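Comment thread on ticket #2218

A.B. wrote:
> Attaching the input chain for the structure job we discussed in standup.
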Amino acid sequence: MQSSRLEAFSDAILAIVITIMVLQFQMPKGPHIYDLLPLLPKLLAYTLSYFFVILYWINHHHILLSVKLVNAKIIWANVIWLFFMSFIPFTTSWVSKYHMYRMPSMVYGILLLFTGMSYVFLQKEIYNMTDEKDQLGQTIGQDKKGTLSLALCSIGIILSFFSSHLAMACYLLTAIFWFVQGKVFSKVITTTQTDTDE
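C.D. wrote:
> Ran it. Output below, let me know if you need it in another format.
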């Protein structure tokens, strides 16, 4: 299968995930600014989840640049990753409504953990299919932000036993870590791809 087909399918699923999340917002009960306050927890949870989806989307695009064809292992690894991604609207809605409780924030973190694990597995399968001399593939193989973010998610899950807000802060830190490391990774990918094209 062409990697472009897999990427197009994944893009469609991720777009649906974001659409479902935003459709869960209800109209404020009044015309005043303070009528938005009850929606604040949902808005914060949506923003965090939105950026997780976008960060995955960007990185997913980058790792697929290294292969033109994908095998069955990559397809199934991608399907498993999308399976966990599809649960993000559910956990986002739950944690936004019951943000004071530990269980929703714990489940939110567990989903992020399994999503991250499946993405790391997908990245590994793509790396295994690249040529050892391919600079783009080697760059992907050296990217460790997915693995390191699993540790942050695990810490967040542990923190959820004590405070749901501390847990969510840790998940936010994970997203920031992905963003910062992603900018570095994106720059390396762009440079490597330019050198390869030349």
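A.B. wrote:
> Thanks. Noting for the ticket: The chain has one domain: 3-197.
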